[in-house]
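Below is how a single chain appears once it has passed through the pipeline. First comes the sequence as given, then the structure the pipeline wrote out for it. We keep one example in the README because the format questions we get most often are answered faster by looking than by reading.
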Amino acid sequence: ILCAHWDTRPRADRDKIPENRNKPILGANDGASGTAVLLELSRIMSKFPPPITIDAVFFDGEDYGEEGNLDEYFLGSRYFSKNPPYQGYECAILLDMIGDRDLRIQKEEFSNYHFPDLVNDIWNRARKLGIKQFDQSIYGEILDDHRILAEIGIPSIDIIDFDYQYWHTIQDTPDKCSSESLKAVGEVIIDYIYF
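Resulting structure:
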């Protein structure tokens, strides 16, 4: 599974300006970036069928909830986990918040602890390709769609740059993102799929 969430936050609850906190966010990075790369990977895979079967999954409702109420988050991945279209997925790679101009993707702690072989495979490919945005250091645990998939036994990792100052603000706009960041992540995933 290659997956991303396409929804964006319905409220900018982290915005520094209180008047903005009830406004919806555009979500150029948190929502659109992973979706953009997944769409491009899907286009490539349709032209050049990979040697393995891959499901591209676009989750909704990842970022819906009120802060502190996890039952309102990850709605799409929760539905998917209860209604999987296939049994026996080998793994899942979640792409989230990968468009930051200053992209630095550290190893997410839950992914690295539970599925180190998959994490190391991806990060070693990035190093082999000379893609410097993948950092060997470990970041803390992130609550994200990959955790829901892991709960049903699918080895799942999160490729995420959580150090993004515009997270959950109305400033999460395209000018804060970089096509080079998207390309870097896409190249690593292409290497994983085809080589």
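The two ends are 17 Å apart (CA to CA).

See the next section for the split statistics.
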